[in-house]
Amino acid sequence: MKQKVSLLSLPLLLSLLLIGVIGALERGPVALPVYVGAHPTNEGPMGLSELYQAIRRNYSTILVSSWEAVRVEGNCKLLLLVISPEVPYTEEEIEKISSVMSRCVGSKILVADETGNANPLLSAIGSAARIGGGAQRQYPLVSFEVPWGSYVLLLDRPSPLFAHGEAKAVGVEIGVPSPQVYSFMDEKGLVIGDGSIFLNQVLRSEAQLYADFLFGAIRYLCQNCTVLLDATRAEPFNPLSIIHGRVSIEVVQLIDPVSLVISLLSFVLHPSAWLVPLGAIANRLIAEFLLVNPIRELLITATFVVLALFLASREESAADRPLREVSEVHWYGYVAFKKNLVKGGGSLGREDFISLYELFNYLLSASTGIALNSPEAPLVLEARGMDGRRAREYVSFMNKFYKRAMGKSWWPPVVFWGSTTRKALEMTEEALKALGYSIMEARGLEERVL
Length: 450
Description:
Blueprint: H1 10-27, E1 34-35, H2 49-58, E2 60-64, E3 78-83, H3 91-102, E4 108-112, H4 119-125, E5 129-131, E6 141-146, E7 149-154, E8 161-163, E9 168-173, E10 181-186, E11 189-192, H5 200-203, H6 208-221, E12 226-230, E13 236-237, H7 240-243, H8 249-252, H9 257-268, H10 271-290, H11 294-314, H12 335-342, H13 350-368, H14 377-383, H15 388-405, H16 417-435, H17 446-449
Parallel strand pairs: 2-12, 3-4, 3-12, 4-11
Antiparallel strand pairs: 1-13, 5-8, 6-7, 6-9, 9-10, 10-11
Helix pairs in contact: 3-4, 13-15, 13-16, 14-15, 15-16
């Protein structure tokens, strides 16, 4: 018979599980960011998911979540897209971006920013355009005269631009006495003082003119190039702010509901969200219970000690020994010993249960041709005179604990093999009598087996 070795004992498994829970508590919940503003993964109205998906379908695209991870090869051509950056660039980030762009010949930029946060980047790259950083008019009508066509677009709350060198004004306000410039173009690329025309709410609308202008600009600036879409400038939204009531309903309506639900579930299902508060509540309740009466505390402690000693005394440990290499089970001269065990005078363990199972399985197979793990075993025992309900309970009980004993199942997780084997002996005696055998009757079983 082949020996199966279990490499994971129950104590070791529980220890590893405890270590994993402690590690999860130390690390905290997994952060699944949710974005409200211009981020490529934001499916909400203020996101850039429509732009990102459209670019991916037509160009080699790199979604930049960290400039440390960007790798480009020589003889490359890039188009950097920066849309409505919510936080300014640091000097270290600008150095990394400049290094990436300088490694590729003929790289261009397309910056749409109403905040002015992109100005340090424009300066480092060598663009002449600068962003004022403050909206002076709402909904200005702007005429764009660009190499890929002429467009008249209604902007949201754009920031006026000014040139710090040679640059061509390609987006000028119309219909007002003192028009503002909202877009410049030079050898480095295109700069627009409004990122709203790139958002999902615009690209999903029926205003096809905006999409024509946007993708026309990308086609003009990016000919056989790789698009870098900067996703590092959007600030994540903390979904717990909704639970705490610190967010207005207007902001909640801008969040993609699917991303919000996933983020909340990732937090709620993490052990740190419920295990620590649950432990604190249990600790408080126990403390309040024990402080009611010192004598009660002493009695409870004594009860736990007695219970622990009782459970520890139920089982006796034994050294592991190799499994037998034969399929027959010999119990010659075992009758008196079994009588003593059933009466509670001996100690039983997992190996005894396995021997008992294999003995009955051998006898059942020899008598009827049906194995104990067969679905027909209860029917055969019932046909031999055993009560049908008892037969089903016996077969289910023996097979469940045999799988557990052989390491084929981890259920039930905790087994007291002494009491389990004693119960199996009693049930097996009843099943054996249905087959014409007996453990308890002298010269009843060994004569037939041997």
